[in-house]
Amino acid sequence: MNLNNWFEKGLTPEQYMDDLEYHKDAFLHIYENFQPPADDEFFGKIKGKNLRVVALAEVWCGHCMLNVPVLLRLAEKTEMDVRLLPRDQHLDLMDQYLTNGKRVIPIFIFIDENGDQVAKWGPITESTKAFVDEHKKDLPPKDDDSYDEKFKEMVKIVAKTFKEKPDFWSNSYESMKETLNEVK
After folding, report:
1. How many CB atoms lie under 10 A from the CB of residue 104?
2. Distance from CA of residue 175 to its chain's centroid?
3. Over the stretch 11-69, which tens digit does the pLDDT of each residue have?
4. Residues 118 and 50: beta-carbon distance below 8 Å
5. What is the largest CA-CA distance in the chain?
6. CB atoms within 10 A of CB 21
7. DSSP category for residue 71
8. CA separation for the pair 169, 175 (Å, rounded)
9. Is the CA virtual torsion 64, 69, 74, 78 positive or negative?
């Protein structure tokens, strides 16, 4: 599948950041404070591949709040151009990248100059998933009257932790780097 058209439809990182509302403070905090470790060999290897990224994301998503700023910093170091597509407006593409049958984001699709996919990352690292699952286990069933309130409380705790714990940022970066290291 040629992904050039999807790339062309996407928002620039600046346009995406202009639309931030729910997690703007945390997103910008991560973006301003995360720097990939110095690794000129890796950065040079990826620069030489002339990759671009099609990112399925939403500004309201906590996992995107964590991972998109990390991707943007990685992209800056490796000179990858990034375009972001709001998932809910691009379900035809999203449905080709389901996680366990669900539309979980973010999904980062790395493409070459021809628009061919060379790698895919997302939606989250195993350690992030374990952390979120630990907090989800105490939620009442979705049909319970208190579910929405309890879910919102959980999201606040998780988002605050993502913002304040650089280990999550580093784990995401290392996972993305591992994915990119497999590109031929």
Report:
1. 19
2. 11
3. 999 999 999 988 999 999 999 999 999 999 999 999 999 999 999 999 999 999 999 99
4. no
5. 54
6. 7
7. H
8. 10
9. positive
Contact by Cβ (8 Å): 110, 2: no
Work out the end-to-end distance of the chain between its first and last CA atoms, rounded to an integer number of angstroms: 18
Judged by DSSP in three states, 151 sits in helix
Give CA–CA dist 107/56, Å, rounded.
Answer: 5
Residue 147's CB is within 10 A of a number of other CB atoms, namely 13
Q: Strand order of the sheet with strand 117-121?
A: 81-86, 52-57, 107-111, 117-121
Q: How confident is the model at residue 183 (pLDDT cuts 50, 70, 90)?
A: very high
CB of 9 closer than 8 Å to CB of 93: no
* Spatial CB neighbours of 96, under 8 Å, sequence gap ≥ 6: 1
How is the chain split among helix, strand and coil, in percent rounded to 5? 55, 15, 30
